[in-house]
Amino acid sequence: MTTTTLGPAVTPRPGAATDPDRRRAHRRATLLQWGFLAPAVLYMLAFFGYPLVRNVVMSFQHYTPRTYFTGEAPFNGLDNWRAVLGDPLFAEALWHTLLFTAGSLLGQFTIGLALAAFFSRRFPLGGLVRAVLLLPWLIPMVVSAVVWRRLLDQETGVVNQILEALNLTSSGVPWLSSPSVALLAVTLVNIWIGIPFNMVILYGGLQEIPRELYEAAALDGAGAWRTFRSVTLPLLRPVATVVLVLGFMSTVKMLDLILALTDGGPANATQTLGTQTYQLSFLELDFGQGAVVGNVLILISAVFAVIYLRANRTDFGTGQGK
Amino acid sequence: MTTTTRRATRARDTAIALVVLAVLLFPVYWMVNTALQPGVDLASTSFLPTSPSLENFREALSSQGGNLLTSLGVALGATLVCLLLAAPAAYALAQFGLRGGRGIVFGTLITQMVPGIVIANALYGAYVDLRLVNSFLGLVLADASLGLPFAIVLLRAFMVSIPREVVEAAMVDGAGRLRAFVSVVLPMSRNALITAGLFAFLYAWSDFMFALTLNTTDDIKPITLGIYEYIGAHVSDWGAVMAAAVLSSIPAAALLVLAQRYVAAGITGGSVK
What we know:
- The structure holds two protein chains of two kinds.
- Helices cover 70% and strands 0% of the residues of chain A.
- In chain A, α13 runs antiparallel to α14.
- In chain A, 42% of the residues are buried.
- Chain A is built from 14 helices and no strands.
- By secondary structure, chain A is mainly α.
- Chain A starts with 19 loop residues before the first helix and ends in a 5-residue tail after the last helix.
- Chain B is mainly α.
- Helices cover 77% and strands 0% of the residues of chain B.
- Chain B contains 14 helices and no strands.
- In chain B, α3 runs antiparallel to α11.
- Chain B starts with a helix and ends with a helix.
- Chains A and B meet through α1, α4, α5, α6 and α7 of A and α1, α2, α3, α4 and α5 of B.
- Chain B: Belongs to the binding-protein-dependent transport system permease family.
């Protein structure tokens, strides 16, 4: 840390750099400045850095339910990796994760964008309604899941009652109890949760687009669809990328919602990488295999982290990030 | 466009907005509606609480009241930890121009991408060794991680705009760096601190995963975990479950009312910038 006081960081004032007292004072000032940062950095190393490293190590260790009494978790090479990757449930969970994530993002983004565009018009109560629409996003996810569990109940749930009253279904849809629709149901609930977030950020992005561009497009005789494609979409791209990547990262690791809605069932129909990590580690107490699935999750997130950071850079480039 | 057609368009837009609101907030309405109707457990719920009663709330409070207090304590503790760590760090990153500062900002962004279950997986082992499993402090520290990156990014974005001269003036008057920070920078950042604090509170209040994984006994049980176990045990008592759900949504509703205009700015600022 003391090396930071040497080199070009020292303000090159004539005569000042050679004065040992001043240099010592400068070093003390720099140390003090790092003191402001140190607690947060140490905390982040402990709560983000350490788990990342530890998970990689754990994925090569053999954990049993007895490990936390005996402290013994011998290294077992690639055994955990072989066991997890060879388990058909892993492939299934990966596929579910993909469907759940893609479906959620598609639904959240299109509905969020449509609402953002709609609320960009000026009309009475618009701002208030936009603010109140945030509520589903702010309620604890487990609570939303529990409410939806009630709404989607096959026999007494109000969703089926409404569908039947509208003659859309004749018998109650087994939303959460049938393996063939459970993943769809969970995805629909997650779309509902994600709409406010998408709407708010995309709304912000739309506000940044200069009005003159729309006036120019109108003068050129462009229709609504043409204007959307040639003006709105290109200018919204940086913000849209950020929304999609943030949405991806929170969806791909989803745990709360699925556990409270279906517990990964029925018949593993809603098992995803997040729930599989939880089940392997905390229910079967095989933390080594849980760590393998966790590492796969990290790997997938890392790919998107790169995209996110690139998007952020584009963002700064266009001046929108400032 | 004439004034009358414009007025008609705006009225139509308001009507559409209210329909959107009704559809998207229906689950929230249904939560409150069910909570107000006692004895709806097996039959289907009627659309309006024609004879509302607080019976379900009484029952929810008697079984979940302690968990609500636990959530309150944990969330307040996590908020405090979060702000104590984030405020000075954000200030340093915004104003000192330290070498390596950019790397730390980058690292802060990266932390948002670490899956929570991965953290819990590794943390559990460390917590066993440190005897932090089933402890209030352990949960507070873990929950602070949920809001910290966001708080740092948000506060830094705000503190960049504080003129250096203001702080320098205070230091010329004889205050040290720390004094200047506490008595000048923090008061100037009040709104940003409130926004970051509210979000840190909400994140910790909503936490389910750390509560689920870092506790093996019933000693420390936040409301989210309480409700999750509630639906396992009392699945026929939906009225009480929904009353508990309403009670646990109060911070979200309060945040929306208290900080309405900061919320949107906060989300946008924290994620896009």
